[in-house]
């Protein structure tokens, strides 16, 4: 579903990605791990179409992203550090706006179901500027899955969430996995990785350091393995 070939990204005189080659099959749930500055967020943004690579190729569903990026972006839901929400709009108004961008017909019922799923039904007509960080993240989750993407890209999605919001997010991810959605999550949260991911890719200094299955593994094993890779 996702194929990154020799992905290089240079910003100014700094090379952020140094030849990332990575394949993720349809329906996989993959954690991307690495220290701050390793290139995780940059790779996710390139895959989401928010940045262009300096060199290398990206294929989504077997098609060149460079040649067909407008159509391929429709397959992707992205949840990053920015919510992309309008703070003077209500949740209903925000999701209605994004539904129009995705040309969704009659999205009203779906919007209300999503707001109920992320626990915001009581606040659906309140302006987003009055929301807490956790509430904004919940609404951003709804925005990311509004158009039923085949690929869900999550950049440190659990950061700043309370326990209830973490549980809501994990339930959304599990539901999407059951629907066959490909999930890629950059994170530092090892317990959450183990609860939702099947595989972990470790990136260090802009390169893929390791790629491991998480089947029959524990969070402690993953943490120890990650630490060993970090010092090599």
From TrEMBL:
It comes from Evansella caseinilytica. PANTHER family: ABC TRANSPORTER ATP-BINDING PROTEIN ALBC-RELATED. SMART domains: AAA. This is Heme exporter protein A. The keyword ATP-binding applies. GO terms for biological process: cytochrome complex assembly. SUPFAM superfamilies: P-loop containing nucleoside triphosphate hydrolases. One of its GO terms (molecular function) is ATP hydrolysis activity. It comes from the Bacteria. The keyword NAD does not apply. Residues 2-230 form the ABC transporter domain. InterPro entries: AAA+_ATPase (IPR003593), ABC_transporter-like_ATP-bd (IPR003439), ABC_Transporter_VariousFunc (IPR051782), ABC_transptr_haem_export_CcmA (IPR005895), P-loop_NTPase (IPR027417). Keywords: ATP-binding, Cytochrome c-type biogenesis, Nucleotide-binding, Transport. NCBIfam families: ccmA (TIGR01189).
């Amino acid at each position: 579903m996702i194929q990154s070939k020799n992905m290089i990204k240079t910003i100014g005189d700094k090379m952020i990605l140094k030849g990332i080659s990575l394949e993720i099959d349809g329906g996989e749930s993959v954690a991307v791990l690495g220290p701050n500055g390793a290139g995780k967020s940059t790779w996710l943004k390139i895959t989401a179409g928010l940045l262009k690579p300096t060199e290398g190729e990206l294929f989504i569903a077997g098609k060149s992203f460079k040649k067909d990026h407008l159509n391929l972006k429709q397959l992707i839901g992205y949840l990053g550090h920015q919510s992309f929400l309008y703070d003077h709009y209500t949740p209903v108004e925000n999701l209605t706006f994004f539904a129009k961008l995705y040309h969704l017909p009659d999205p009203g019922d779906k919007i209300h179901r999503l707001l109920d799923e992320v626990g915001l039904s009581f606040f659906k007509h309140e302006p987003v500027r009055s929301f807490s960080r956790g509430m904004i993240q919940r609404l951003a989750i709804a925005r990311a899955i509004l158009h039923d993407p085949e690929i869900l890209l999550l950049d440190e999605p659990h950061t700043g969430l309370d326990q209830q919001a973490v549980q809501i997010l994990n339930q959304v991810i599990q539901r999407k996995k059951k629907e066959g959605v490909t999930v890629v999550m950059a994170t530092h949260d090892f317990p959450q990785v183990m609860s939702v991911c099947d595989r972990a890719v470790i990136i260090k200094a802009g390169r893929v350091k390791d790629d491991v299955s998480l089947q029959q593994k524990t969070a402690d094993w993953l943490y120890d393995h990650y630490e060993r890779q970090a010092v090599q």
